[in-house]
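Q: My labmate handed me this sequence with no annotations at all. I'd like to see what the chain might look like in three dimensions before we decide whether it's worth expressing. Could you predict it?
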Amino acid sequence: MKPVIAIPLIAGIALGILGRNGNGASVPIPDESIKEICDGDTICDDIKLEANTSQIIEVILPQQQSNNFLQCSISPNEDPKCAPDSSVSFKYKRETQILQFCMKFNQTKHSENKMVVKRNEEIYLRIMLLPCKDDFKASAVHHKTHVTVTCEHNAFKFSNSGIKIERENNIVAQCVWSGQCIGAEAVASGIQFITEYDLKIKYSCAMDGQSVQINYTEQGINSYFRSK
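A: Here is what I predict for the chain of 228 residues:
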């Protein structure tokens, strides 16, 4: 069973609200956080509503063509009236005045996208959604003169931009799921290329904004790893 990733949010306390609160006072601007999510996982937020205040809550992914994932209108002493996207569910706890929404993470639609939560047009939560590191499998196997660098990810087939091998933040090889590759060959769930071995050169695996370092291993030793 896929896990649910909960992101607790107490509006105006834990993360703050951009701009001014209902009394006209300035409040802190929230930092952008990063969440690593595996395809099919569910991400949830608890939003504490302000008492006796009319509010509009919006959850958007600005880079999506249809970017409004949840819109709720809240009037004092009434349950929220919400229009969710098909991938979003919500529930309201009247006794605590908490509105919870959950979204099933879709690698193709959501990865390398920013989730923005607004209240009355003011931003108080920003989250960058990235693929999980645990689903990378990477190796750099050498035999003194050459090295075979392999980069795979369980969600490769759902990636829009494909998987890349980088050297000091420069792309040296790239493949997309259709099998089109530059500077490398496609393997079952990623990419592989062979080059001259140089211990001083560091490689990394990258996909949809997420990356992991690759460690060298001499041929004959299992070099696959899962990044923590």
